[in-house]
Every structure is written in C-alpha cells, then in structure tokens.
Amino acid sequence: AKALAKEYGIGGHSHDYLDGSRGFVNHDWKGLEFVHYPDHQKITLKWAQVEKYIDLMIQSDRYLTDEEKEQRATRQEASNYNVGDEVVVDLPTRTIEGTIGYVGETDVRIDTSAHGQSWDNEVINKQQFEQGLRQSATAQRVDKMLAQAEAIAKESEVPEYERFSVRKVVDGKMPLFAIWDDLYDDY
Q: Which of 59, 114, 64, 110 is nearest to 84 (CA)?
C-alpha cells in the first residue's frame, strides 16, 4: 500500500470507464478517488483496499489484458533478465545477491533470503538495478556470443581466433555487442 501511494504520488487525470462513460481520478497519500460524470458520483478507495483489489485481480488472472501480458513478455525477453534469475547487483552502498522475484515498470524485487543476507526482499529502482547489473550482464552476453562462435568454429577449417571478433555496435547505457565473422564479412 505504501509503494502504491509513493508510485502514484499526488495528482489526477480524466478517465474513460469500461462502460464508455467518462470521469476523473484523483490520487494522493490517502488513496484513489473516482469521480463519475455526469452525476459526479464519487468512490474513494484507500491504498490498502487498492492493494487487496490488485492482489485479487492478479490471483484471478484479470489484472493484465492479453495485450499487456504479451507486451510484458516481449519487454522481459528483451531485458536479458527474468523472474527466477540469480543475480548479483552492485549498488554504490552495498552488493545484493538473490533471485529476481518481480520485475515491474519502475522497480525490481530481489529475494535475498537464500543468500544469507539479513533481509528477505530488496526492492530496487529498476534503473539502479540495471546499472548495477550491467557489467555482469554485458559479460554474460559476450561469453554467450563467444561460445556460439566457438561452436561454429569447430565446424570450420579456419581457426576461431582468426575468424571471429567481438565488436561493440552500440554504445551508451546498455551497450550492444556482436560477433564479426571474417569468413563471411558479416555479423
């Protein structure tokens, strides 16, 4: 409930209801207030109620639409980390080891209980998580590409050290690497 209040903050926006009617949604530290037009009927839910409702929707598989589930799966496939992955995250103040328990839009939860740390779960800002994970994730991607190149090279008459090289093709926050194949002059 506290995380929801923090995530939403203070504000509001117009809202189209599922039945086609319109209204407004306000949110602050107390909860969500739904206003339905044209009768200006108001419904207020405290964050604890919202949390329980979201949990019920998740358990009954009604929280995300099929399209949202597909988009989420696509994002997770592109992200190189998934729920259940073992990770080590180097933050400026400490290192966290554990298993990814949840990947959200803004936060990642890591279950640390099996790694002898004193807390059971750590919730980390997704950007901090990715920055702390970046070096090891990059190294893992490079190792995977090299292993693929070695497998291909075993079938080739050209020695792998003369045929393949790892090249950075995109620089920035999440650098991208590819393997150059000298035999075919292509990635």
A: 110
> Is pLDDT at 157 greater than 60 in this prediction?
yes
CA–CA distance, 111 with 99 (Å, rounded to integer): 5
Query: Locate tokens 């988009």: which residue?
Result: 71
DSSP per-residue string spanning 66-121: HHHHHHHHHHHHHHT--TT-EEEEE-SS-EEEEEEEEE-SSEEEEE-GGGT-S-SE
Q: How far apart are CA 6 and CA 51, in angstroms?
A: 13
User: Tell me: domain 81-132, CATH 2.30.30, correct?
Assistant: yes
Measure the CA–CA gap between 126 and 103, rounded to whole angstroms: 8
Q: For the segment 27-79, what is each residue's pLDDT rounded down to a tens digit? A: 998 999 999 998 889 999 999 999 888 888 888 888 888 888 887 777 666 56
Distance CA 164, CA 182 (A): 6
Predicted model pTM: 0.41
